[in-house]
Design the sequence.
């Protein structure tokens, strides 16, 4: 493979430097590196980050190829600056056997746009009744380290305890979708003043918080690590903060949309804003931003959830829950965290690359931008401003809540092990 | 006037008073030997009912026919909807047949709003009840009934309900009637108190322009009208209250409680009543109960709404015409 010289890039937002890629590896980082024999990319003050790692992506294949495939999803990921994504298990069939996770893993390798690390289901069929063969999924070619029934909560306390204990044998982690099912029967949106007015079934914050509280205590009791998916409330932040202060091995994620959008948008009854967990209030949004800044929340994960048009072009109650997010995540994080001064680019790199790779025990990703490291890199132009146009998405689905909204920043180049997957904002 | 009627909260005080005044005019038509006006001749209105509701559907149908509109009734049951057709396709199919207005009843909160705003159709949309959100024509007919009874058919013209004390009792959580009434009555200057067991009051009610009480007995003496909402028996299976009898004891309206109301105060019910649950037969059948009157007023009010929304020809010398000119 040939050499590539990225000239004048602000590495992690610092001083402009040159970065020389040779083959799959970063050869050198410094000033005035020789361009001899190398293809030159003029970064011109753009910010260079380690390739982003998403711990929470729905690629929909197998089963719902009408909304996304591994190929279209990884193209979308590359455009968003991601070099690795964790594919959630709620496919059809469910990724609860070695066979299915290996299929997804193989499709990811074939796509070539982004590494795909399958997530295994915790329980057979996501039904919460019987533990899936977690060990077989871990031992498979896919090497599963993260297990989740995401979309459904592992609500049975004994089942959760056993799963937390069992995966310790191979250093795995259970990622919990915290949603007490009885408290959320018929739930359509955040329970509060807006739901009272709109007459939509309320989704109380306590349905999330009570499960998180239980699970951090379970993790403490059995000495396991636990990961909490998509925190959405100020109360959840308080519980995780308390758990960490107590030394409990808990990590937590927040989605870009929960950092920006509130339940006020539901007043439009536009199902593009229907998502699980639901959009919360301004107070929650501010608490989540603060928690992401101070490290209480470890990572940003997209919960990219593609749906075909007909599942959103309908009345609210009939609509599917979820939003696409891979291609807008970094822009939303820039707007909510960087441009607000809450986080610098090094902080972004930590929360969108290093930390998720660490939680997923993913080798070769989330590494520093320095000589000898794998050349998984993302070049972003933070000065860019533009309205989101879903027509330009690589994702097969268009269910973005940001259509027409002006967001800052644009991924211009993505490199996966030295090979450009995105050049000048376009798929290579 | 606006183009659609989706929520009682969208009505200004003047809009609402205009509708009530026009309804008064329509009521006079009902007293004539020939109860029909030519106002909507040549216009087509579809009653698009995704939920069973014989009462509301018949009320709209009567209103439409008295205004000489061509009426199409569409019930979702047994139609293409039960075979999985989307709301969008159903609406577009109907509009392709040349419909000027869609009266929609739907189990999903916001469905009429979607119809009016998604660009699926051009027709005027009238909400005949959506989920647990809104039922604006019910609130209008209730306000019309209150104004007639508490102020008078003639004396009430041009008036709102300023200073009237209205108590709404029952399953507020699941009630689009309660939401619509709170919005409209507040707009009309009335003071509203909701009474219900705490389990049947929505979280977030504190932002509504009304008071909330858990004790019916404490508010009866201060009520000009007491509106009883239907309480579905199946609610007790979801632990909203222990038993039917306990509900009736604490929140039902019986003769003893009615006696605590001021002389002039009325008892209202949007129907269908569950006798023995929220209201005893003695109260339901008493002179003070306006349930049947509300049904008649429903036709007048819906005529007024259709007439004003579809902009039919003005009946000569109507107060509606005068009010519109003066606006």
Sequence:
């Amino acid at each position: 493979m040939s050499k590539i010289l990225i000239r004048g890039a602000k590495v992690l937002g610092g001083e402009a430097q040159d970065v020389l890629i040779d083959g799959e590896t970063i050869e050198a980082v410094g000033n005035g590196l020789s361009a001899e024999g190398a293809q030159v990319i003029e970064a011109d003050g753009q910010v260079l980050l380690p390739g982003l790692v998403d711990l929470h992506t729905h690629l929909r294949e197998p089963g719902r190829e009408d909304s996304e495939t591994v190929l279209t999803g990884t193209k979308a990921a590359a455009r968003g600056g991601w070099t690795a994504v964790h594919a959630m298990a709620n496919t059809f069939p469910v990724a609860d056997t070695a066979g299915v996770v290996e299929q997804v893993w193989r499709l990811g390798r074939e796509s070539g746009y982004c590494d795909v690390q399958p997530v295994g289901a915790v329980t057979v069929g996501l039904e919460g009744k019987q533990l899936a063969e977690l060990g077989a999924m871990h031992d498979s070619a896919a090497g599963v380290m993260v297990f989740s029934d995401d979309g459904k909560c592992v609500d049975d306390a004994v089942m959760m305890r056993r799963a937390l204990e069992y995966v310790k044998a191979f250093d795995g982690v259970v990622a919990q979708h915290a949603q007490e099912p009885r408290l959320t029967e018929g739930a359509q949106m955040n329970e509060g003043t807006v739901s009272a007015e709109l007459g939509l079934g309320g989704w109380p914050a306590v349905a999330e918080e009570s499960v998180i509280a239980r699970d951090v205590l379970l993790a403490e009791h059995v000495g396991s690590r636990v990961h909490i998916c998509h925190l959405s409330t100020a109360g959840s932040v308080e519980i995780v903060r308390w758990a960490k202060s107590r030394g409990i091995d808990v990590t937590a994620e927040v989605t870009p949309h929960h950092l920006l959008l509130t339940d006020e948008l539901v007043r439009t009854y536009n199902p593009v804003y229907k998502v699980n967990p639901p959009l919360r209030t301004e107070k929650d949004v501010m608490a989540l931003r603060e928690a992401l800044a101070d490290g209480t929340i470890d990572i940003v994960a997209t919960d990219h959830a593609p749906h075909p048009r007909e599942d959103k072009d309908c009345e609210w109650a009939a609509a599917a829950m979820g939003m696409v997010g891979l291609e807008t995540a970094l822009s939303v994080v820039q707007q909510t965290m960087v441009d607000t001064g809450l986080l610098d680019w090094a902080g972004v790199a930590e929360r969108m690359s290093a930390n998720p790779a660490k939680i997923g025990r993913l080798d070769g990703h989330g590494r520093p931008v320095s000589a000898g490291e794998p050349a998984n890199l993302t070049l972003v132009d933070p000065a860019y401003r533009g309205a989101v146009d879903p027509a330009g998405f690589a994702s097969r689905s268009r269910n973005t809540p940001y259509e027409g909204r002006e967001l800052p920043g644009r991924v211009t180049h993505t490199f996966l092990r030295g090979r450009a997957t995105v050049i000048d904002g376009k798929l290579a | 006037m606006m183009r659609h009627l989706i929520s009682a909260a969208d009505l200004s005080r003047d809009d609402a008073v205009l509708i009530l005044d026009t309804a008064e005019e329509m009521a006079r038509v009902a007293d004539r030997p020939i109860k029909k006006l030519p106002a909507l001749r040549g216009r087509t209105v579809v009653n698009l009912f995704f939920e069973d509701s014989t009462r509301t559907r018949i009320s709209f149908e009567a209103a439409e026919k008295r205004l000489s509109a061509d009426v199409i009734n569409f019930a979702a049951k047994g139609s293409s909807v039960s075979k999985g057709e989307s709301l969008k396709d159903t609406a577009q199919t109907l509009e392709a047949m040349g419909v000027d207005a869609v009266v929609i009843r739907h189990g999903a909160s916001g469905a009429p709003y979607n119809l009016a705003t998604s660009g699926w159709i051009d027709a005027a949309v009238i909400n005949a009840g959506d989920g647990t959100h809104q039922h604006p024509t019910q609130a209008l007919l209730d306000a019309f009934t209150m104004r007639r009874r508490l102020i008078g058919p003639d004396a009430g013209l041009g008036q709102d309900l300023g200073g009237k004390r209205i108590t709404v009792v029952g399953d507020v959580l699941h009630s689009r009637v309660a939401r619509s009434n709170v919005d409209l009555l507040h707009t009309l200057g009335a003071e509203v108190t909701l009474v219900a067991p705490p389990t049947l009051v929505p979280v977030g009610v504190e932002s509504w322009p009304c008071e909330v009480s858990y004790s019916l007995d404490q508010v009866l003496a201060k009520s000009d009208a007491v509106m009883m909402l239907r309480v579905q028996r199946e609610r007790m299976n979801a632990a909203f209250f222990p038993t039917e009898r306990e509900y009736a004891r604490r929140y039902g309206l019986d003769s003893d409680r009615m006696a605590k109301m001021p002389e002039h105060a009325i008892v209202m019910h949007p129907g269908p009543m569950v006798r023995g649950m929220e209201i005893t037969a003695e109260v339901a059948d008493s002179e003070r109960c306006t349930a049947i009157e509300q049904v008649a007023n429903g036709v007048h009010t819906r005529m007024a709404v259709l007439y004003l929304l579809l902009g039919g020809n003005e009946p000569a010398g109507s107060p509606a015409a005068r009010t519109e000119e003066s606006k």
User: Anything to note?
Assistant: Chain A has two domains: 3-47+373-427, 52-359. The mean pLDDT of chain A is 97. Residues 205-222 of chain A form the longest helix (18 residues). The radius of gyration of chain A is 20 Å.
